[in-house]
């Protein structure tokens, strides 16, 4: 009986993975809309079409075979995590295949590019100046899918009894609306709305339409893939840089906080703890970076301010756009970017990193501990933080959970840095690149390239994957799989 229930749950997991395969497959037809404009790119069209058809057919077969409406199976959050991990791994392989079929990349490079796209990192091993327009658009579509979250995209179309498990497994605990269905649809409306607004603004201020589409998707998804080798710096435009900064900040703000703002509750929005922390982070890190780094690199003070502001916003939002290279940055400037990349963006957003909310709560808990030594012992005080949904009273369990996640994050950071050091890279370059991967940023000091050793690309791919899906979700998912396998073979009780 118990074995039968477990079997049904894994059939549902495979069925939901099939839905993701269909969504990814259908999304592959999107870049083909520009084929009439670029008719010479036939090999790219073929590689996308053949992969898309196979993905849709196999996905539809899995959905029909494994998802039965009358089974009434409910997935827990842990099983939702297994579904999300399965779905993401499947999506990565599917998204990598067109690069392999076309002969542009080998398998390791193609997987790296797909992971970078879906995790909205933006590190790349392709030469964008020599890459076809259809593939450039496909990279942006991958960032659109990853930014919203594959499970959220699926849930916005199909909501079943397993909505809560899948939604939470995507590291989204804040509800925008009373139920999951409305929340997921509102996320998609906000997400697509900002992208369309960005496209219009970019075009109005002189960016070509194709570049505008790609950069707007990448900015709002905090992805960072660009159609130019020099990224946003190619345009040498204050207006385009300002538009990009606004879009990056919008992308890194919690979707639940966006819902508060769009309802016109500006005071409530400004009281949210992680919004205040993000603002404080900008006010501290931008002037410091300007004074100790960029002022020494540029003759113009205004240019030094522009660079400091843009690069810090790009790093904090984990987008990865840039206006300059980092080869001539001093150690302080590089270290500042590493710190803000590790801190990352807002929880429940498209951004990566340890997240503003977690760092904010830890800093608040430190202050609360200091106050507890000062206040008389007889005074009992409940401490809280302001979240989009209102006051949230923080207990020791919540702080321990946050501490555990940050500990795992920093532990993996150290391990991955050692791997790069073992391959002969410098300490500054290794720390910078791994911080960029783990926080899904996309800024680079040159470690990531087509010539990078395969094991370095594999390490970076694993870091991006773990950083995007959040370590605890991935660990719990694999532990759940191992436990279920042991039960299936009679070595453990259900």
What is the topology?
Layout: H1 2-27, H2 42-66, H3 77-101, H4 107-118, H5 133-148, H6 150-157, H7 163-169, H8 180-204, H9 209-220, H10 238-252, H11 255-262, H12 266-271, H13 273-292, H14 301-316, H15 331-343, H16 356-374, E1 384-387, E2 390-393, H17 396-422, H18 427-438, H19 454-469, H20 471-488
Antiparallel strand pairs: 1-2
Structure description:
The chain has 494 residues and is mainly alpha-helical. Helices cover 66% and strands 2% of the residues. It has 20 helices and two strands. It has helices spanning 2-27, 42-66, 77-101, 107-118, 133-148, 150-157, 163-169, 180-204, 209-220, 238-252, 255-262, 266-271, 273-292, 301-316, 331-343, 356-374, 396-422, 427-438, 454-469, 471-488; strands at 384-387, 390-393. The chain has a two-stranded antiparallel sheet. Strand 1 (384-387) and strand 2 (390-393) form a beta hairpin. Helix 2 (42-66) runs antiparallel to helix 3, helix 3 packs across helix 4 and helix 16 packs across helix 17 (396-422). The longest helix has 27 residues, at 396-422. It starts with a helix and ends in a 6-residue tail after the last helix. The mean pLDDT is 88.
